[in-house]
Amino acid sequence: MVSNGTISSTLIIKCEKSRILLYFINFFIRYLKDNYKLKKLNHLSEISNFYDAYIIDLWGVMHNGIELNQSAIKVTENLLKKNKKISFLSNAPRPKKNVANFLKKMGMSDKYLNFIFTSGDASMKAISNETYGKKFYHLGPERDCSLFIDLKKNRTAIMNCDYILCTGLFDEKEKDLEYYSNLLKKHTSKKMICTNPDLIVHRGNELEYCAGKIASIFENLGGEVIYFGKPHKEIYKPLINKNEKTLIIGDNLRTDIKGANNIGLDSIFIINGVHRKEVSDLKNINFLEKKYNIKLTYIQLELEW
User: Which domain holds residue 285?
Assistant: First the structure.
């Protein structure tokens, strides 16, 4: 017959072993997170067989606002030949068809245009359902009016609106950030809907502010912003299949890479994009990871096959 003392001693030993094992498991997980090896890619073909689906940013990866990146087009062609699923996910505050027309003018083939998904389309559901009210003030360029063309009757002045719909900056006030601070400071009790969380893009070599920049000004004034687009999880739901291994490719650490981190997917950070001036050499990549609170899987100068 086994004594109670023997049973107790055995249980204590087992519990202690389990505690030690759990400690080493947690230590190993932390070690992997802190000491993972970031891989610099020369060619996407090196890893193309590891993934079933690719979510690719447009501005900064596929084009620079003026012309297509032909090496990225070649990547798209080769992925399709390998029967990979491709989605072009853009924070453009406009409907998919408008973005498609923009890309077509730059020479993108029609066969790629059906792969486009935009933050503008994602925001339209909430706008159409009057989730945040009926009357809105449109803050952005006139070219973005196509986003709400069927709801144009609900557009009103800022003092009469239920919420502010921010798609970008006014054409005549593209550089004057103080103008927006003065415009918005008396209206922080209203919600702002931001259809493009990007802060900046490069059109060729010229820097341009995006709707996200105005949204950040509004938040600094004390206002509340509802974002549609990367890096927020909801934008990815229509594109993700749990049975597919997906890779996200983008040039923006705040949106593309942060978005990948938010949904637990691998990513490629394209260096020669919106952060080109911050990446003086590869030695400061770790600094950028800390600065933007993100983790990188791969880095590549430009998207190349």
Answer: 40-91+231-300
